[in-house]
């Protein structure tokens, strides 16, 4: 595949992630940050606040799951076809701490037909693995955004560089 086609696919995936991010209620409520995205990958982060802690004073597992699930949503929709979670699981390996930025790094492992398999690693600021999330997606169909608008935006960026 040509570099131009790869760049176009990455631009589309990033535009899709930005669109999804702008429409979510949880992202602004929990201050989830879309760090970056491309075709087959996405990176999302959040800072653990006091209201995100469990009774033992560490990051609530549901918050970590939501962070990973958000990155999963962006990566499984990176083809610009409406796609939903069909199954997800998470393994917690270490605790997130108040004030710490956790980053979810999502990757597409495989996609065939309407099904995709994805892995998300949630990483602490010190590089340790906090959790590993695995998701299975199901494509429902239909574009999320108009591809022509992405092409126009990309052309505009190139002429202004």
What does this structure look like?
By secondary structure, the chain is of the alpha+beta class. It has a single domain, classed as Thiol Ester Dehydrase, Chain A (Roll). It is 35% helix and 34% strand. The chain has 4 helices and 6 strands, in the order ααββαββββα. A hairpin with a 5-residue loop joins strand 5 and strand 6 (129-139). Helix 1 (3-23) crosses helix 4 (147-160). The longest helix is centred in the first third of the chain and has 21 residues, at 3-23. The radius of gyration is 16 Å and the shape is globular. The model has no long low-confidence stretch (mean pLDDT 93).
Kindly name the structural category: alpha+beta
Question: Count the strands?
Answer: 6
Determine the N-to-C terminus distance: 24 Å
Strand order of the largest sheet: 1-2-4-5-6-3
N-to-C series of helices and strands? HHEEHEEEEH
Return the average pLDDT rounded to an integer: 93
- Gyration radius over CA: 16 Å
Superfamily at the CATH H level? Hotdog Thioesterase
Tell me the domain tally.
1
Give the biggest sheet: 6 strands, antiparallel
CATH topology: Thiol Ester Dehydrase, Chain A
